[in-house]
C-alpha cells in the first residue's frame, strides 16, 4: 500500500523479459514475413529525456517492438554504452572500437555530435535488464549460463516466464540444468493463481528437496488463501529445511571461525617469532603488517602502470617483495634499536611503540592518510556452495595461505641451519656463541624473519581490510592475545590459540552480538590466563620464573 | 611508479610550502596585527581520524587563500592557525581553548566526530567562540556558538529511505551501524519513521558492530538470510568509515549485488571509495547533500580551482568539503554584514545569510543554526564516483530536534531575538532549563 | 641493595622536599599570578594555562600511581588508564546528576543521552551519584574493587611479567568496548559531558578552575607523600624485594601476592583520584580514556622521567604532555608523532634511567656519598648483573 509504484514496475519487468525473448526468438521469421523492421523511433526518443521512468517505458516498448535492434540497444544500455545527444535527440551506441553507430539503424556515424550524454542506469533499470537477459539466457548455448539463468528465474518467480521455461525445459539435455529448470518451474507454480492443489503440493515437494535459503523464500510465499493441505505441506517442508539449515549453520560458523582464526594466525605468527622466541615486546609488529599491505599496493600500482596483464599474479609477486622489504626494515630496527635492549624486555615495549608511531606517521606523510585501493585478483573473488555452506574463494585462499606460512616457518626453524642457530641462540646464548655461532647475526636474522612474516601477512590482510596507516593498530592487541593465549615461544600454541579464539568468537557472535561477543572473549582469555598463567602450551623447563 | 613517487614528493612539497607560509605568517603577525584576522582550524592531522579530517584542513586553507586573493575580509587578510588535536578527544578541548584564549581567533572550522564536538562545546560556550561544524550528525543539538553545516538526519537518512521505498519497492530493512551515538540515534529515528509508514517490526533488523569491525562474514550472511524472506530488502548503513571497506569487500565476496540487496550508506563518500575497488559495489547507494559528480558550473569551477590549489588533478571532493565551503562563505558574508569579527555581532548576523552551494542552488543559515540543503541520492559507479539518481526538488530545512524521538518531539530551536533558545519546549512554553 | 639496609632514611629526601616545594609553590603562586597581575603583564598566567597545568598535574598523579607498581613492584600494567577512567566516570556521573533539569530536554533525572535514546528510568548503577560523598567514595572504590578482583586472581595465579601486561591490556580493551556500547548506560562513545556545576559552583568559573588546580596540586603532593611513605616502610622494602626476586621473597615466608594486591589496589585508587580531578577540568569523560594506547603512553611518561623515582614519573608526565601541547600547534603539527616516537626511542636507548635517574647518577658521580639516594629506588634493569642483559632462555618451540 505504501509503496504504490512497485506492482506496476514488477509487471514492466516481466513484460520486458518476455518481449525481448519473443523478439529475439521469433525475429527472423517476423522480419521475413513483414519485410521491414518495426518503427522504434518513439521509444528511442524517450531515452533522451534523462528520466528513469521514461527509460523504463522505452525499454518495455523496445522489448515488445520485435525490432532486430532491440537486443543490441538493451545490451548497450546495460554496459553504459548507450548515448544520446541532448541537442539533436539522436541515440547512439558506442562500439568496442570507440566509434558510434546509430541505435535504430546500426549504420556507423562518422562524426558523433558534441555533448553526448550516456543514458543513465539505476538499480531499477539494471534489474529490468537483468531479468530480460535472464530469460534470454535460458536458451543460451552455454550450460553454465543456462544454470545461472534458471536460478535467476527461480528467485524472480515471474509467472510470465512460465512458457519460456516450459520451452527451455523441453529442449534441455543437461541433467543439472534440467533439475534447476524444474525447480524454477515449481517455484513459480507454488505462487501462481489457478494451479490445482495437487500440482501445488507436488511443486512444494520439489522445492522442499532443494533445502536451501532460496527454497525457504519460495515456500514462505505460499498464498495465505491456499488450501489447508497445501499450507500444511509447505509448513512441513519449511520445518524440514529450517532444521536442516540450523545444522548446517553450525558448520558455517565453524568455517567462519576457522577463517577468522587464520587471519589471527597470520597476524600473530610473526609476533610468535619476535615476541615468543626472542622476548621482544614488539609493538611495531602491526606496522610491519601494514608495510606489507602497502608493499602490495605499490606492486599493484606498478603492475597497473606497466603490465596490466600480470594483475592476477600481483599478490604472488608481492609476497616475496613484501617479505624481503619488511624483513630488511626489521633487521634495520634490530640493528639500530632492539639489540641495545636485550634483557630489558619491558623497555623494548617503549622503544618499539615509538617506532610504530614513526612508521605510521611516515606512511601517512608518504601515501596520505586515506585508504589505498588494493584490488582482488579474479581467482580470489566469488564463492561456491558446499552443501549448504557458502565458501568464498578469498577466505579459502587466506586459510590455505596461513597454513602454508605456518608450515614453512615450522620447517625453517626445525630443518634449516639458520633455524637451528636461532633455537640455539635463544636457548643459551653464551653456549651458542662458544660453539662459533655469530649470535649478533642470528639475532638480526630472527627479527628479520619475524618482520618478514608479518609483511607477507600484510599481503593477505590487504585483501580483507583497509590499507591505511591505521591497519596495524587494529591487529596488535589480538596478536598479543593469540600468542599469550597459545603460550609464548611455541608455534603450535599460536596455531591452536588463533583457531580457538577465532572459532569461539564466531560461535559467540550469533548469540551475543559482535560487540558483546568480543568482550566475552576477552574476559574468557583473562580468566584462562589465571588458570594457566603460561598459556595453553606452557613450556616445560627448569626455570621457575622467566 | 611515477604516480606514486610524484605523490610522495608532492605531499612533501606541499608540507614544506605550508610550513613556510605559516612561518611567514607567524612572523608577520606582530608587525601587522591590525591587518589580519585569525581563523582557527581544528582538524586531526594524525591518529585515526586524520584519514577524513586532513582534507577539511586543506579545504579551509584553500578557502582562506582564495579569500585573501580576493582582498580578504573587511580589508584585512585572513591568517590560518592550524592545530592538530591528533584524534584525541580531550586534546580537542585543550586545542579549542588554545585557539580561542591564546590565539584569539575570530572563528574556528573544525571537528568531525560528534564526540569531538561535544568535547569542545563547553569551551566554545565559555569563551564565546564560533565553531563551524561541517559533518552530517545525529542532530539533537542546537547551540548558540555552533553552526552546523552538515546534514541533520532528516536531511539525509529519511529521504534515502523514501527513495528506496518508492523506487526500489523495499519492504524489509536492515539498519546496520557501528555502535555509537550517530547510528543509534539515526536508527531510532528511522525505526520510528518506518513504523509510522506501516512497516512491521519483524521486517526491521537492527545490528550494531564495534568500531573498526573487520570480520563481517557472520553479519553479511545474516543480512543475506534476512533478505531471502521473499520481500525486497535493503540495508541502511550507518557503519563508520574504517569498517566500511571490509564490509563492502565481504558483500562483494558473498555475491550480494546492488540489484539483490541494495545498501544505502550515510558515511561513504568519494574519499572513502577512493580506497576500494568499486567494481563489485556498482549500484549501491549513498545519500548526501553534495556529490563531486553534480553537473553544474559552480561545482566544475570549484573542482578546477581546488585541484589547482592542491596540485593534484585526481583529488576528489566530497560532502563535508562542500559543507566547509558553505560555512566559510557564510562566515565571510556575516562578518561583512556585521562590519566586525566580534562573535556577539557575527552570531546574530549569520542567521538568514544565504550563499550559493555547489549543487547549483543556495543554502541559507536558519534560526536553528542549521542550513537548508538539497538531498541527493547517488549510486556508486565503477570509477568511484556517484551517479545522481534522485535529487529532492526543493531545499530541506534541518530538523535538529527529531519529531520521531520521544524526548525531542516538542523541542524547537530559534536563536533570533525574542526566543534566543536552542531547546524551546512548545508544550511547556519554556526554554529548556529555565 | 647493600645501602638499603644502612640508616633508615627520612620520609622525604632532599629532592623530595624540592619536589613538594615546587608543587605546593605552584599551587600558591599560579592562582596569585592569575588573579593579581594585569592580563598584559609578563607575569600573568592566563586561565587557559591554569587549566592546562591542572590537567598536567592530574596526569602527574596518574604517572605516580604507575611508578608505584612498575618502579617498586615490577608490575607493568598496560591497563592503568582503565582505573583513571573509572575514577573519571564516577566523577562524571556525579556531575551529570548535578545538571538536574538543566539538560537540553529538561528531564529532572535522566541525563540527556538517555532521554533521546528513549530510556524510561535511571539504571540502578546511577543511583546515589547525586550525592557527592557517595560519588567521592566510588571514585576510589570502583577502581579499587576492580584492581582487587583482578589483582587477586592474577597474583594468586602468579601471572607475572609479560603475561600480566598483556592481560591488563586485554582488561582495558574489554572495558573500552563495553563503555562504547550505548546499552551500557554510560553515554556510549560521546561519554559524559555538558557539566554545569560541582558542589554548587559553576564549573566554568575562573574561581572553580583555580580551586580545581590547587586541589590537583595538593592531591599530587599528598599522593607523593603517600607513595614515599609506602616505599620507605617495611611494606615497601618487601615490595622492592618482590620486584627484584619474587621467588626468593616467597621462599622467605612472605605472601608475595598479598603485598602485590595491596600495592595494585592503592595504585588503582590513586589513578581513580587523578581521573576524578581530571574530568571537571577537561569537561568530558568518554571511553577513549580506556584505549590501550593511552595506557602505554602513561608508561612512557614514567620511563622518560625515570622509573622508580616517583619524582621522575611526575616530571615525565608534565614534560611529555607539555611537548604534546607544544608540538601539536602551528607548523610542526603534522610531524609531532615523529617527535613523540623519536623521543621514546631516544629515551630508552640513551637515557634508560630517565631524566631523574640520570640526574641522580650524575650527582652521585660528583659527590660519592649522596644523602638521600638509594640504589634500591632504581629499576632492576639498572642493577642487573651484566649476564642478565641477555635474552631469557626460551626454546624455539
TrEMBL record, chain A:
| NCBIfam families assigned to the protein according to its UniProt record, in alphabetical order | urea_trans_UrtB
* Protein topology in the membrane: Multi-pass membrane protein
Question: Under which name does UniProt file this protein?
Answer: Branched-chain amino acid ABC transporter permease
Q: Name one GO molecular function term.
A: transmembrane transporter activity
Matching Pfam families, A to Z?
BPD_transp_2
On whether Transmembrane helix is a keyword of this UniProt record, the answer is yes
Question: This protein's superkingdom?
Answer: Bacteria
Q: Would you tell me the Gene Ontology cellular component terms?
A: plasma membrane
Q: List UniProt keywords, sorted A-Z.
A: Amino-acid transport, Cell membrane, Membrane, Transmembrane, Transmembrane helix, Transport
Q: What PANTHER family does UniProt report for this protein, alphabetically? A: ABC TRANSPORTER PERMEASE PROTEIN, BRANCHED-CHAIN AMINO ACID TRANSPORT SYSTEM PERMEASE PROTEIN LIVH
Q: Tell me the compartments it is located in.
A: Cell membrane
Membrane spanning residue stretches: 254-281, 313-333, 345-363, 396-420, 441-460, 480-504, 511-529
Q: Would you identify the family this protein belongs to, as annotated?
A: Belongs to the binding-protein-dependent transport system permease family. LivHM subfamily.
Please cite one Gene Ontology biological process associated with this protein. amino acid transport
From TrEMBL, chain B:
What keywords tag this UniProt record? Signal
Q: Which domain of life is it from?
A: Bacteria
- What SUPFAM superfamilies does the entry give? Periplasmic binding protein-like I
Pfam families the UniProt entry points to: Peripla_BP_5
Q: Signal peptide position in this chain?
A: 1-33
Q: What NCBIfam families does the database record attribute to this sequence?
A: urea_ABC_UrtA
The name this protein goes by in its record? ABC transporter substrate-binding protein
Q: Which organism is it from?
A: Ancylobacter defluvii
TrEMBL record, chain C:
Q: What is this protein called?
A: ABC transporter permease
Q: Where, by residue number, does the polypeptide cross the bilayer? A: 16-36, 43-63, 69-91, 131-155, 162-180, 210-231, 258-278, 298-320, 332-351
- Membrane topology classification: Multi-pass membrane protein
One GO term describing the cellular component: plasma membrane
- Where on the tree of life does the source sit, at the highest rank? Bacteria
Major place of residence? membrane
Q: Where's it found, cell-wise?
A: Cell membrane
Region Disordered: start-end pairs: 368-397
Q: Do the record's keywords include Transmembrane?
A: yes
Single GO term (MF): branched-chain amino acid transmembrane transporter activity
Biased-composition ranges, Low complexity, are 368-387
Matching InterPro entries: ABC_transp_permease, ABC_transptr_urea_perm_UrtC, LivM-like
Q: Which organism is it from?
A: Ancylobacter defluvii
Amino acid at each position: 500500500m505504501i509503496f504504490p509504484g512497485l506492482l506496476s514496475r514488477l509487471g514492466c519487468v516481466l513484460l520486458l523479459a518476455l518481449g525481448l525473448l519473443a523478439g529475439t526468438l521469433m525475429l527472423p521469421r517476423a522480419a521475413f514475413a513483414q519485410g521491414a523492421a518495426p518503427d522504434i523511433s518513439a521509444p528511442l526518443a524517450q531515452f533522451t529525456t534523462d528520466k528513469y521512468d521514461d527509460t523504463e517505458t522505452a525499454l518495455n516498448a523496445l522489448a515488445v517492438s520485435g525490432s532486430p535492434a532491440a537486443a543490441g540497444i538493451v545490451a548497450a544500455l546495460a554496459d553504459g554504452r548507450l548515448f544520446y545527444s541532448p541537442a539533436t535527440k539522436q541515440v547512439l551506441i558506442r562500439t568496442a572500437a570507440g566509434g558510434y553507430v546509430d541505435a535504430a539503424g546500426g549504420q556507423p556515424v562518422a562524426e558523433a555530435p558534441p555533448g553526448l550524454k550516456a543514458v543513465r542506469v539505476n538499480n531499477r533499470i539494471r534489474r529490468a535488464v537483468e531479468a530480460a537477459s535472464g530469460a534470454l539466457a535460458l536458451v543460451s548455448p552455454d550450460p553454465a549460463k543456462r544454470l545461472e539463468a534458471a536460478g535467476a528465474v527461480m528467485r524472480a518467480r515471474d509467472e510470465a516466464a512460465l512458457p519460456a521455461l516450459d520451452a527451455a525445459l523441453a529442449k534441455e539435455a543437461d541433467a543439472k540444468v534440467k533439475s534447476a529448470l524444474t525447480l524454477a518451474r515449481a517455484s513459480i507454480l507454488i505462487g501462481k493463481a489457478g494451479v490445482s492443489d495437487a500440482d501445488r503440493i507436488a511443486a512444494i515437494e520439489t522445492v522442499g528437496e532443494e533445502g536451501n535459503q532460496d527454497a525457504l523464500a519460495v515456500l514462505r510465499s505460499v498464498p495465505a488463501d491456499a488450501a489447508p493441505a497445501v499450507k500444511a505441506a509447505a509448513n512441513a517442508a519449511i520445518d524440514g529445511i529450517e532444521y536442516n539449515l540450523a545444522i548446517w549453520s553450525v558448520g558455517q560458523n565453524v568455517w567462519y571461525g576457522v577463517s577468522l582464526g587464520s587471519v589471527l594466525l597470520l597476524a600473530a605468527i610473526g609476533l610468535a617469532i619476535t615476541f615468543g622466541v626472542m622476548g621482544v615486546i614488539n609493538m611495531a609488529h602491526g606496522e610491519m603488517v601494514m608495510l606489507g599491505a602497502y608493499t602490495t599496493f605499490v606492486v599493484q600500482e606498478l603492475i597497473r602502470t606497466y603490465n596490466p596483464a600480470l594483475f592476477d599474479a600481483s599478490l604472488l609477486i608481492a609476497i616475496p617483495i613484501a617479505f624481503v622489504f619488511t624483513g630488511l626494515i626489521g633487521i634495520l630496527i634490530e640493528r639500530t634499536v632492539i639489540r641495545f635492549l636485550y634483557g630489558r624486555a619491558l623497555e623494548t615495549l617503549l622503544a618499539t611503540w615509538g617506532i610504530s608511531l614513526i612508521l605510521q606517521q611516515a606512511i601517512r606523510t608518504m601515501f596520505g592518510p586515506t585508504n589505498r585501493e588494493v584490488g582482488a585478483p579474479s581467482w580470489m573473488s566469488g564463492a561456491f556452495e558446499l552443501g549448504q555452506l557458502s565458501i568464498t574463494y578469498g577466505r579459502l585462499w587466506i586459510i590455505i595461505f596461513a597454513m602454508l606460512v605456518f608450515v614453512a616457518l615450522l620447517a625453517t626453524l626445525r630443518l634449516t641451519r639458520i633455524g637451528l642457530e636461532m633455537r640455539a641462540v635463544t636457548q643459551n646464548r653464551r653456549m651458542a656463541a662458544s660453539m662459533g655461532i655469530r649470535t649478533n647475526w642470528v639475532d638480526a636474522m630472527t627479527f628479520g624473519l619475524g618482520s618478514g612474516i608479518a609483511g607477507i601477512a600484510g599481503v593477505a590482510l590487504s585483501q580483507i581490510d583497509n590499507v591505511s596507516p591505521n591497519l596495524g593498530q587494529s591487529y596488535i592487541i589480538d596478536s598479543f592475545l593469540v600468542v599469550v593465549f597459545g603460550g609464548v615461544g611455541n608455534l603450535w600454541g599460536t596455531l591452536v590459540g588463533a583457531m580457538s579464539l577465532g572459532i569461539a568468537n564466531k560461535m559467540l557472535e550469533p548469540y551475543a552480538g559482535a560487540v558483546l561477543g568480543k568482550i566475552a572473549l576477552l574476559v574468557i582469555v583473562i580468566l584462562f590466563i589465571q588458570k594457566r598463567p603460561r598459556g595453553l602450551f606452557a613450556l616445560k623447563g627448569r626455570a621457575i620464573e622467566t | 611508479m611515477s604516480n606514486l613517487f610524484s605523490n610522495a614528493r608532492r605531499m612533501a612539497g606541499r608540507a614544506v610550502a605550508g610550513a613556510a607560509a605559516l612561518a611567514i605568517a607567524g612572523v608577520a603577525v606582530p608587525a601587522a596585527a591590525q591587518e589580519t584576522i585569525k581563523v582557527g582550524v581544528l582538524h586531526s592531522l594524525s591518529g585515526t581520524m586524520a584519514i577524513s579530517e586532513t582534507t577539511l584542513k586543506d579545504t579551509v586553507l584553500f578557502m582562506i587563500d582564495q579569500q585573501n586573493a580576493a582582498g580578504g575580509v573587511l580589508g584585512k587578510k585572513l591568517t590560518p592557525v592550524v592545530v592538530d588535536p591528533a584524534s584525541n578527544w580531550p586534546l580537542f578541548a585543550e586545542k579549542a581553548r588554545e585557539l580561542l584564549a591564546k590565539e584569539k581567533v575570530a572563528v574556528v572550522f573544525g571537528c568531525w566526530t560528534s564526540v569531538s564536538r561535544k568535547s569542545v562545546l563547553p569551551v566554545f560556550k565559555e569563551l564565546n567562540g564560533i565553531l563551524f561544524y561541517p559533518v552530517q550528525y545525529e542532530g539533537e543539538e542546537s547551540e548558540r556558538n555552533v553552526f552546523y553545516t552538515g546534514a541533520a538526519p532528516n536531511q539525509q537518512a529519511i529521504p534515502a529511505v523514501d527513495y528506496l521505498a518508492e523506487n526500489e519497492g523495499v519492504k524489509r530493512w536492515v539498519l546496520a551501524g557501528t555502535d555509537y551515538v550517530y547510528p543509534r540515534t539515526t536508527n531510532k529515528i528511522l525505526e520510528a519513521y518506518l513504523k509510522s509508514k506501516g512497516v512491521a517490526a519483524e521486517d526491521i533488523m537492527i545490528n550494531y558492530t564495534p568500531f573498526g569491525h573487520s570480520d563481517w562474514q557472520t553479519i553479511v550472511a545474516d543480512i543475506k538470510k534476512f533478505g531471502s524472506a521473499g520481500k525486497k530488502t535493503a540495508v541502511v548503513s550507518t557503519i563508520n568509515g574504517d569498517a566500511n571497506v571490509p564490509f563492502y569487500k565481504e558483500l562483494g565476496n558473498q555475491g550480494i549485488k546492488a540489484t539483490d540487496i541494495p545498501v544505502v550508506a550515510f558515511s561513504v563518500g568519494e574519499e572513502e571509495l577512493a580506497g576500494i575497488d568499486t567494481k563489485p559495489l556498482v549500484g549501491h547507494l549513498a545519500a548526501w547533500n553534495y556529490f563531486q559528480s553534480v553537473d553544474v558550473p559552480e561545482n566544475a569551477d570549484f573542482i578546477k580551482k581546488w585541484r589547482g590549489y592542491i596540485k593534484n588533478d585526481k583529488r576528489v571532493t566530497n560532502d563535508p568539503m562542500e559543507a566547509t565551503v558553505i560555512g566559510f562563505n557564510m562566515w565571510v558574508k556575516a562578518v561583512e554584514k556585521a562590519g566586525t569579527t566580534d562573535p556577539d555581532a557575527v552570531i546574530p548576523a549569520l542567521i538568514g545569510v544565504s550563499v550559493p552551494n555547489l549543487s547549483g542552488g543556495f543554502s541559507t543559515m536558519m534560526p536553528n543554526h542549521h542550513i537548508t540543503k538539497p538531498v541527493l541520492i547517488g549510486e556508486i559507479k565503477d570509477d568511484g564516483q556517484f551517479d545522481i539518481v534522485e535529487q529532492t526538488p526543493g531545499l530541506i530545512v534541518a530538523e535538529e530536534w527529531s519529531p520521531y524521538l520521544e524526548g525531542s518531539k516538542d523541542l524547537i530551536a530559534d536563536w533570533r531575538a525574542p526566543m534566543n533558545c536552542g531547546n524551546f519546549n512548545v508544550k511547556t512554553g519554556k526554554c529548556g532549563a529555565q | 641493595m647493600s645501602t638499603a639496609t644502612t640508616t633508615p632514611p627520612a620520609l622525604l629526601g632532599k629532592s623530595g622536599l624540592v619536589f613538594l616545594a615546587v608543587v605546593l609553590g605552584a599551587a600558591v603562586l599560579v592562582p596569585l599570578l592569575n588573579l593579581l597581575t594585569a592580563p598584559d603583564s609578563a607575569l600573568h598566567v592566563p586561565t587557559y594555562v591554569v587549566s592546562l597545568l591542572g590537567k598536567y598535574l592530574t596526569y602527574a598523579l596518574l604517572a605516580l600511581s604507575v611508578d608505584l607498581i612498575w618502579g617498586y613492584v615490577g608490575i607493568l600494567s598496560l591497563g592503568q588508564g582503565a582505573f583513571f577512567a573509572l575514577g573519571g566516570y564516577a566523577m562524571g556521573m556525579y556531575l551529570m546528576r548535578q545538571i538536574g533539569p538543566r539538560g537540553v530536554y529538561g528531564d529532572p533525572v535522566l541525563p540527556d543521552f538517555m532521554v533521546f535514546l528513549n530510556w524510561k528510568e535511571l539504571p540502578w548503577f546511577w543511583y546515589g551519584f547525586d550525592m557527592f560523598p557517595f560519588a567521592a567514595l566510588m571514585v576510589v572504590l570502583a577502581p579499587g574493587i576492580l584492581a582487587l578482583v583482578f589483582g587477586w586472581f592474577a597474583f594468586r595465579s602468579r601471572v607475572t611479567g609479560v603475561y600480566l601486561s598483556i592481560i591488563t591490556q586485554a582488561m582495558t580493551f574489554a572495558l573500552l568496548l563495553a563503555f562504547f556500547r550505548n546499552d551500557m548506560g554510560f553515554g556510549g562513545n560521546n561519554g559524559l559531558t555538558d557539566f554545569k556545576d560541582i558542589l554548587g559552583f559553576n564549573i566554568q568559573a575562573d574561581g572553580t578552575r583555580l580551586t580545581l588546580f590547587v586541589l590537583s596540586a595538593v592531591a599530587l603532593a599528598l599522593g607523593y607523600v603517600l607513595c614515599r611513605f609506602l616505599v620507605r616502610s617495611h611494606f615497601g622494602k618487601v615490595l622492592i624485594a618482590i620486584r627484584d626476586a619474587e621467588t626468593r621473597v616467597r621462599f622467605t615466608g612472605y605472601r608475595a601476592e598479598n603485598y602485590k594486591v595491596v600495592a595494585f589496589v592503592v595504585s588503582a585508587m590513586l589513578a581513580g583520584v587523578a581521573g576524578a580531578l581530571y574530568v571537571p577540568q577537561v569537561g568530558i569523560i568518554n571511553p577513549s580514556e580506556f584505549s590501550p594506547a593511552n595506557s602505554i603512553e602513561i608508561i612512557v611518561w614514567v620511563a622518560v622521567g625515570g622509573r622508580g623515582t616517583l619524582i621522575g614519573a611526575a616530571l615525565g608526565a608534565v614534560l611529555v604532555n607539555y611537548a604534546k601541547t607544544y608540538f601539536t600547534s602551528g607548523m610542526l603539527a603534522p610531524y609531532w608523532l615523529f617527535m613523540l616516537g623519536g623521543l621514546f626511542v631516544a629515551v630508552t636507548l640513551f637515557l634508560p634511567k630517565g631524566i631523574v635517574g640520570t640526574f641522580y647518577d650524575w650527582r652521585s658521580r660528583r659527590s660519592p656519598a649522596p644523602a638521600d639516594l638509594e640504589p634500591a629506588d632504581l629499576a632492576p634493569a639498572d642493577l642487573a648483573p651484566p649476564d642478565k642483559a641477555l635474552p631469557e632462555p626460551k626454546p624455539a618451540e
